[in-house]
Amino acid sequence: xxxxxxxxxxxxxxxxxxxxxxxxxxxxxxxxxxxxxxxxxxxxxxxxxxxxxxxxxxxxxxxxxxxxxxxxxxxxxxxxxxxxxxxxxxxxxxxxxxxxxxxxxxxxxxxxxxxxxxxxxxxxxxxxxxxxxxxxxxxxxxxxxxxxxxxxxxxxxxxxxxxxxxxxxxxxxxxxxxxxxxxxxxxxxxxxxxxxxxxxxxxxxxxxxxxxxxxxxxxxxxxxxxxxxxxxxxxxxxxxxxxxxxxxxxxxxxxxxxxx
Length: 260
Known about the structure:
Blueprint: H1 2-18, H2 41-59, H3 65-80, H4 83-97, H5 102-110, H6 116-134, H7 138-156, H8 159-162, H9 183-203, H10 209-231, H11 236-257
Helix pairs in contact: 2-3, 2-7, 2-9, 4-5, 4-6, 4-11, 6-11, 7-9, 7-11, 10-11
């Protein structure tokens, strides 16, 4: 029972941390559970990706696909509070405006104000995501985002194993430093990220899953090398930015090498 309670607490903490659902009003897990929320990050992707998939699938029955995709993006923004999008904007503001000065990059990323690079990164990201999803049949677009969301979070979660935290807990924006997870948690992370892919295999075999799996992994590795070179460590903003860029790459790979 203690093991199950511990899993429940950490999962509940992950849902509180990565969404804006008022679950904390029902139950507040111990504070230390927030250090391990990455271990359930892909599982929260089932929720956020699932909401987008439902909005696209149902909305496209009555509305143009282009409108349904916009509504799906808006639904996820409401569900997450734009958590990862905020990380994407801060990441590009820091990397674009900080030059080669590591401390300046970190300071800009921590600043709550958005700059030119952040605005441009969000515009380009949303345009690309909208274009990719609207270039697919509605059913494929729905399955695509449901697969891409957890998979991207599974890959991005590897950052905390591959890099040290770039700040201290006292200077972290949310006062939380993710702990490095065990091999058992890593295996669970892998299952959470890949299980939705199995659903797509069942629904359609007309997808080259070699590229769908490999291209995002290559992009993730290149981003890891870039972050290691510039910061010598990761931040929460880095995790959010990498997640969205890897998710976009997954969707692009499905567009290029998938039919339905």
